[in-house]
Every structure is written in C-alpha cells, then in structure tokens.
Amino acid sequence: MAQSDPRIPNLQNTYTPLGLPLSGIYKRSYAHVTIKDRLPVILTKIVDTFCQNKSKIINTYSEDAEKDIKEIIGFISQLKNEIVTNKPLKPLHLNTAVTNDAEEWNKYLEHRTHIEGGIPTWFNTTWLYCECYMYRALAQEIALTNTIHTYDPFEYSKQTDFIDSIDAMDLIALYLKDIICNKEYNKENSKNDFLKLLKLSLWGNRHDLSATAGAPSSQTGNPLMIVESLNQNIVVNDSELVWNIINKQINKNNDIHMVLDNAGYELFTDLCLAAFLVTIIPTTKITFHVKLYPWYVSDTTVRDFLWTLDHMSKLNHHPNMQLLGKMFNNLIDNETWCIKEEPYWTGPYDFTQMKEKERNIYAQFSDAKLVIFKGDLNYRKLLGDVNFEYNTSFAAALGNFQPTNILSLRTIKSDICVGLLNDTAEFFENHKDKLSTGEYGLIQAALFKK
C-alpha cells in the first residue's frame, strides 16, 4: 500500500518484499528507520565530536585545522539535510592530490542512475548503497582537507568502548592465558575451548556503535558466564561443522582469513579466537581484513588494531591483558598474523560481485581453509542485502560467492536472515522487530572447499 509523502515517491507501508534488496522505500523496514532516524543522529554526533574536541584537534594538527573543521561541519550539516529530505546522491568530490577509489564510487553512481532510471535518492535507492555512501562521502571530505586528513571522528568512541570493558576482558585474558601458556594443555579440551571462544567472538558483535547510533556499549560482568546463558539465542548454530573444518589438516595450507567488524571489545574477542587457533594448529596463519577508512562508527581500521595491541601491552595493572598484548604483537612480528587493508571493504560493491571486481581477494580466499565474516554488515554484503525467504539455505543465498568454506558470526541487527528452521522462521515472520535488536545470533557456515 502506497503512502503519501511528497519527499519519498512511491513510499510503501510494508516490510521489504521477498526477493528484493532492503530499501528505505518500505516504511516498516529497518532500512527506513535507519535512514530516517539513525543516520541523522550519527551525523549529529560527529558534529558534536568536532565541536567538543576542536581545541584538541587544533593543538594536534595546527591552527589551520579550525578552517577545515568548520568546512567539515558544514558538509555534514548539508548531508544530513539531504538525507532527511530524500535528495539525490552526489558524486564524491575529487582531488588530483588524493588518489583513492572515489572515481570508482562515482562510476557506481552512474551505474545506479542507469539501473534506477534516475539519480538515486536516499530512501528510494538500496539501503546498502546509500548507507555505505554516507560513510564514504564523509571519509572523502576529511581526506581532502589540508590539515586533518588523517583524523578519525570515531576513534575516541572506539577506544572508550575498549577501555570501559577492560575488567570483563581481563577475565577472558586469564582464561586464554591458561590455555596458550600451558605446556601440558590437554588437547581433548580444545573443542570445548574453541566453542567457548567462538561464542565470545559471536556475542562480541553486540558491541556495534553504529547500531546504537554512537551510544556507549561497554561490556560488564563475566563474559565467560554470560555467553553460556545466551545459547538459546543462537538461532543457527553450525559450530560443530566449523570445528570439523578447523580440526581438519589440509595439505595445501591451513590459512584462515577473518573479515573484521567492530573495534573495541569485539576486536579483542576476535583476537582471542585467532590466538587460540594458531595455538592448537601451529601451521595456521591468520589474515585480518580491516577497513581503509573510519566506517560505520566502530569498524576496525589498521590504527585501531595496532592501538589495541599497544594499549594492551601497557596495562601494568592487568598482567593477563598485558601478556596477551605482547603475545599478539609477537604473532604480528613473526607473520603468523597479518593485517590487510583493501579498498574493497569500503567500496560500493557487495561480496556477490567480488569474483568479478576484486579477483585478488577472491583468489586469497580460494586458497584458504576458512574465511570468517564478522558482523551484520558483512552478512548483508554476503547476501547482496536481498530479503530471501528465511528458510533459504545459507549456501544458496551466497550464490556464486563460493571461494572456500565460509563462516558468518553475526548478531542479527537488520531485516535479512537465512538458513532458519521452520519454527524459527515462523517466529521472526511474526516478530520482525526482533531482527534488528542484536539479541539473537548466528554461527552459520557454508562448505565449498573441495
């Protein structure tokens, strides 16, 4: 049923129809709520960050930063107005001195214009595209400034999430230290320890500052106990399948890739899982894929990753965290761990297009034992952000994205979900609002490795 709104042509008072990409044009969808409410709030908080930290930024970068701050605030204010009034998306500003993928984004805008029969507008285009465009446009404007082109407006929030969660992380650090430092570790326990660390990494994904529109979300309590209390909230649990993949020796290599999501507490849980994996299977090398730009408020960049290890190494009052920090740094130094930042993760394409658009990454994945995708945005990109039937198999929904064995660890924070049993599918069909709360999780795997 169409609803009248002169700013949003053809607004539908429905949820997203099956088989179509998520879009703000469907008024009952989380996409609509995000574009209408959450994105403007996030932009407002970025302006607040610039205003509150103006003196500190000027002291760090130079007095000339004041002019750049003013221009960025003006850009953000205009962008927010364009979102709420459903204006057309604009090409990213270009500068010959800054070479990045902005031209590729502008080509994609031309492509979407051709597909949609007109310039895409915020509510009428696909949610995945316009939401990613917002963060990419912001990153471009900051990159083009003379003085603050390296500034991350989300850095303080990410670091605060980590610092405020240290007591909870220290309990995990003690647990992990007792495993990886124990020369008499009983490998018969490795499966149970793997499942525990896998669930810690899954529920760490609740720490998503874009989902909370930038509101703090520090971890409290004992995570080792909390995750066990959440077992009934894992609506797809392929952990046994994943353990069989992990535990299987592959002649060619045992490499694992992890496409990261949030910094802070979630990144710590990811690093603990990775440290355990290289402990029980010493031939394993792990590659972490991070974002090239500040992204979705709390997504991990190289700077976030290195800050985390450095900060852990200096925690004199938390010796277990400090020990792990030094161990993690050693894993980087001896190249057991590798960090990569590629523009594809902040580009305009989903993963169904990777085989065509980014052959190098697809080839890396094809040579690996397993690729772990963290979080909701990566899940959306794996599925092309299409609203499949809930009982569609995960492998089928991945389409031709089949480089190797795939694992998604995701707390559900958007409208799409596949691989559900009939009773679970019926539950979400009747409680669609539960798909965006983050209270349910997926440990979901698809086997493609021959």
Summed up, what is this model?
The chain has helices spanning 30-52, 54-61, 65-84, 102-116, 127-143, 155-163, 166-180, 190-204, 223-229, 239-247, 265-280, 302-313, 319-333, 354-357, 359-366, 376-382, 394-397, 422-430; strands at 234-237, 256-259, 286-290, 337-341, 370-374, 405-411, 441-446. The protein has 450 residues and is of the alpha/beta class.
Report on the architecture of this protein.
With 450 residues, this protein is of the alpha/beta class. It has a seven-stranded mixed β-sheet with strand order 1-7-6-5-2-3-4, sandwiched between helices. Helix 11 (265-280) links the parallel strand 2 and strand 3 (286-290). It has helices at 30-52, 54-61, 65-84, 102-116, 127-143, 155-163, 166-180, 190-204, 223-229, 239-247, 265-280, 302-313, 319-333, 354-357, 359-366, 376-382, 394-397, 422-430; strands at 234-237, 256-259, 286-290, 337-341, 370-374, 405-411, 441-446.
Count the beta strands: 7
Q: Taking strands numbered 1, 2, ... along the chain, how are they ordered across the largest sheet?
A: 1-7-6-5-2-3-4
Percentage beta strand? 5-15%
Distance between the termini: 47 Å
Globally, the shape reads globular
Secondary structure category: alpha/beta
SSE run: HHHHHHHHHEHEHEHHEHHEHHEHE
What does the main sheet amount to?
A: 7 strands, mixed
As residue ranges, the low-confidence spans are none
Integer-rounded radius of gyration: 22 Å
**Mean of residue pLDDT values:** 94
Helix run count? 18
